[in-house]
Design brief:
By secondary structure, the chain is mostly helical. 64% of the residues lie in helices and 4% in strands. Helix 3 packs across helix 5 (100-113), helix 3 runs parallel beside helix 6 and helix 4 (83-95) runs antiparallel to helix 5. The termini are close together.
């Protein structure tokens, strides 16, 4: 099976700039990350009303695990210098607008985790929307996972 053609140049660039690295063997399997994403998403749903900030962050984490699962399946993983942004760039380049919400969630998660001042919080409605977006990303990743070749 040949490489996933869409976004190939962007992945090559992320590899060259050491924001992604190639992995092999058991590390090139994203199934466990999809399972972790599902558990994290369920937990986010359970706490959304009582702790919307934590629920939002967990929803983001679930989306990130789902996206990272796709990269792992391709034998790729983000480096510490690429981090979450490299995951965003890689999945958007390869899989398109179905992953657009991930970027907005990443930025909002950063605002919640590193507030610029007091009162930087979210609402149960915003947390619920993030859980919905993370669920869509997770379902898309589930559908794509088995179709991906090693990069």
């Amino acid at each position: 099976m040949s490489r996933w053609p869409r976004g190939e140049a962007e992945i090559e660039q992320l590899l060259a700039s050491k924001q992604l690295q190639q992995v092999a063997g058991g590390q090139a399997n994203g199934e466990h990350l999809l399972e972790k994403a599902a558990r994290t998403l369920a937990t986010a749903g359970e706490i959304a009303l009582d702790d919307p900030d934590s629920a939002y962050v967990l929803a983001y984490d679930a989306a990130r695990y789902s996206a990272t699962a796709l990269l792992a399946q391709q034998g790729l993983r983000p480096t510490t210098s690429g981090g979450h942004y490299a995951v965003e760039v890689a999945v958007r380049a390869q899989f398109g607008d179905g992953f657009r919400a991930f970027g907005a969630m990443r930025r909002r998660r950063n605002e919640l985790e590193y507030p610029s001042g007091p009162g930087e919080t979210t609402t149960p409605d915003e947390a619920s929307a993030a859980i919905t977006d993370a669920g869509r990303i997770h379902r898309a990743a589930q559908q794509l996972l088995t179709t991906l070749p090693i990069f």
